Each structure stands twice: as structure tokens, then as C-alpha cells.
Amino acid sequence: MHVWSVANQKGGVGKTTTVVTVAGLLAEVGYRVLLVDLDPHGSLTSYFGYDPDELEHSVYDLFATKHKINREGVERLLLKSSHDRIDLIPASTAMATLERKAIGEEGMGLQVAKALAQVRDSYDYVLIDSPPVLGVLMVNALAACQHLLVPVQTEFLALKGLERMVRTISMINRARSKSKKLSFTIIPTFYDRRTQASVSSLRELHNKYPNEISNAVIPVDTKFRNASIRGLVPSVMDSSSRGVHSYARLLRSLLERQKQEVL
Ligand SMILES: Nc1ncnc2c1ncn2[C@@H]1O[C@H](COP(=O)(O)OP(=O)(O)OP(=O)(O)O)[C@@H](O)[C@H]1O
Ligand SMILES: [Mg+2]
Fold it and tell me: Which residue intervals define the domain AAA in the entry (predicted)?
């Protein structure tokens, strides 16, 4: 089971869209995929038609429980998505209170990793959507994954948010052993080659992060929004769209790299 987290300490950069689109493409080639919504806003949860205000069970349970996390407890959280090879562990709005509660509590940074270990045999890939704030939920997302995807909007000031994220990754890596350092891929999003802001920020990303930047650049594509309104993964809604093509290219390069190292 491979676990990839999608994170950036900036909102609205395409995190949830990246999770849903990559998941759809993995499912299409036959992989069993689990999505985990660690954002208290619950956009990923809402995407598949669930209301984060009304769910009885969610990621919150992993933090609230005094008992040890077991398989039964994790299976209770699983919901179906609109795709039969994709399941979801949803977010609930109660998770917003976790940032305050869990701070300073021993071991709270590994709750999600422990939960995923319980369902290791049921899925090929896990994709984790994380909130744009550095707190216990993001720490869980970073601790549970082997590889991190960082969508970055190609616009002025894009690098500012990214620098914060890169500092967070370095902090996490100081605590990890040499063989388990967290690697990351920067995904330029909302690219519009007609605008100077897109062109120059992409160039800047290449200059500053030549080894981490993905060759696949995600263009502005209104079909992502249309797919989200219908609750479908973008590749099911329209497999020929430019945006889906770009994510497919990204995925091919990730799978290629995975052959050489553990992602
Ligand atoms: N490449 C794109 N082209 C056009 N629209 C996009 C693209 N990617 C995402 N969107 C749309 O932009 C909005 C924000 O995207 P998304 O929800 O994926 O960002 P996010 O980083 O998860 O945001 P948040 O920080 O609020 O969770 C959504 O309405 C989505 O449909
Ligand atoms: Mg989101």
C-alpha cells in the first residue's frame, strides 16, 4: 500500500482536485484507492455527496477514541464514493476542535498512520487531503505518507506559500531517519500560458526547485468544477479534457519514479 499526501499551507491551490483526479486515474487502471479527508472543511467529503456536519463517524473518531485503533474501528469509518474502486474516510466539522485539543498530547501525530496500517491489505493507494494550516492534522498527513504532492498555483506570491511548506517538510525530515526522508513533488496548477504571472512563476519554480518540480503542468480547466458539481471523478466525467490529460502525465511520472524508489 502506497500513501501519498497532498498538502500546501495555502488555500485554494487545487489540493482536493489533485486528490480526486489522481484517485480516479489510479482506480481506472484497476487499483483500489482509499481517500482520507483531513480537512475540517470537508471539501473532499462534500465532493462525494456527504455532509461533514451530519456524519456520525469520521476521522475525528481516530482522535477521540481512548481505545487502541483496531481494524473494526477503521472499517466503521469507510464510505463509498461515486467510483466503485474508491472508498473514503470522511471529515466532519468537529475536527476543527482537534487542533486545540490534541496539542501536547503524546502520540497524536501518528493516529492516521496507525489507522491506515489496519487496512493495509484492502487498498493499493491511499491519498490524503490535508488542511492548509500547520497543525496536528497536517502533521498526521505528513507522518502517514511516503510521498508528498504539493500543488502550487502559478501566480504571483505562489512561492511564498510554497516556502512555508518546504520549511515544514524540512522540520518533519529532521525527525525522520535517513532512509525515510519525505520526498515531494511540486505540481504547478491553474496554469494559463497567456498570462505573464503564470509564465514567470513557472520559470521561478523551475529555477528554485529543479529536482522537485513536475514536468506535468495542470492548466486552468473549467471541467474540474463541473465534475465536482456532479460528484464524479474528472476522468469519468470527461477523460479527454486537458486537465485530466495533465494529471495522467503527472501520474505516469510518479509511477515511473516509484519503480526506482519507495513512494
Ligand atoms: N486546474 C484547475 N482549473 C480550473 N479550476 C480548478 C482547477 N483546479 C481546481 N479548480 C477549482 O478551483 C477551486 C479550488 O480548488 P480545490 O478545492 O481543489 O483547492 P484546495 O487547495 O483543495 O482548496 P482549499 O484550501 O480550500 O481546500 C474548486 O472549485 C475547483 O473545482
Ligand atoms: Mg481542499
Answer: 2-175
Q: Which tens digits make up the pLDDT trace of 79-122?
A: 999 999 999 999 999 999 887 765 556 678 999 999 999 999 99
- The answer to whether 157 touches 20, Cβ cutoff 8 Å, is no
Does domain 2-260 fall under CATH 3.40.50.300? My reply is yes
**Beta partners for residue 79, in sequence order:** 88
Domain residue limits, the chain: 2-260
Is residue 39 lining ligand 1, measured as CB closer than 6 Å? yes
Mean pLDDT over 137-157 rounds to: 94
Distances (CA, A) of 163 to 152, 204, 248, 250: 11, 12, 26, 22
Give alpha helix (H) positions in the chain: 15-28, 43-47, 60-64, 71-75, 98-101, 111-118, 136-144, 158-175, 196-208, 223-230, 234-237, 242-260
- Let me know the angle formed at the C-alpha of 27 by 54 and 259, rounded to the nearest 5 degrees: 125
Please check the confidence at residue 177 and state whether its pLDDT lies above 90. Answer: no
Asked whether 189 lines ligand 1 (CB < 6 A), one says yes
For 115, phi then psi, to 5°, come to -65, -45
Complete edge-to-edge strand list for the sheet that includes strand 79-80: 79-80, 86-89, 33-37, 125-129, 2-6, 147-153, 183-189
Pair type for strands 183-189 and 147-153: parallel
Pick the atom of ligand 1 nearest to 129's CA: 22
Q: Which residues, 6 or more positions from 25, have their beta carbon under 8 angstroms from its beta carbon? A: 235, 244, 247, 248, 251
